[in-house]
Amino acid sequence: MPSRFRWVTFDLNGILLPDGWQNEMRMTAADADFRDFPRTPVLSREAADVRHITRGRVHAQEVRHRLPWLYQSYRGAFLELAGQACEEKVSPARDDRYGVVLNVQRGTRMRFECHIDSNPLTGVLFCTDHVAGGELVFAHDAVAASIEDVERECSVVRPSAGHLIFFDARRYPHYVRPLTRASDMRVVAVMNYYTESCPESTRPPELNQHLYGDK
Questions:
Q1: How do residues 143-197 score in pLDDT, each as one tens digit?
Q2: 50-89: string of b/e by CB count within 10 Å (b at 16+)?
Q3: Do 170 and 118 meet the contact criterion of CB atoms below 8 Å apart?
Q4: How far lies 57's CA from each of 140, 154, 166, 202, 207, in Å?
């Protein structure tokens, strides 16, 4: 059966992105928080024996400080595009801690966790190009519970710098493949958006407990 998974792509090269934006992204990403991140409660679709995933993140506070244009675009120009990609009215997160962050992979041993999303619309701005590796992979099977399960039948989105994609992956486990070159670095800006039928209040409290220590 064909997958029902869909995404919408906007090519922002030459529009909406400031001069030198890629270099600015790379410089910010080089200072990311690189470490072993524990698997995410509720949303993780990793195999049972996987306890952590090594990757990098530039947290939202640092994004707002070092990339103010990205923070403003998330709430402005990118929000307008998100509205074109969704049949409902779209809103940015009120809580700046998870509105927009940078996910970073460096070398061949990092990848992004296999998981589903809790928010109804995700925006991903690809900031780097890659000859191979770093693909965003979505399972067609909603019960996929490992990267091996995801890879059996999937849709693959190859990173292309300057492309902004929007998708709803609440029912589609997905992850990011490792890079293939030790000298390579993959940078994406990830944005959480919400809708009237799935507002920010539906965000599982376990996520903020896990990420920020909320009680």
A1: 999 999 999 999 999 999 999 999 999 999 999 999 999 999 999 999 999 999 9
A2: eeebebbbbbbebbbebbeebbebbeebbbebbbebbeee
A3: yes
A4: 27, 25, 20, 24, 16
**pTM above the 0.85 mark?**
yes
Q: For residue range 60-116, list pLDDT tens digits in order.
A: 999 999 999 999 999 999 999 999 999 999 999 999 999 999 999 999 999 999 999
**The token pair that represents 36 in the structure block:** 């072993």
For tokens 């470490």, what's the residue? 35
For residue 179 the two structure tokens come to: 């890079």
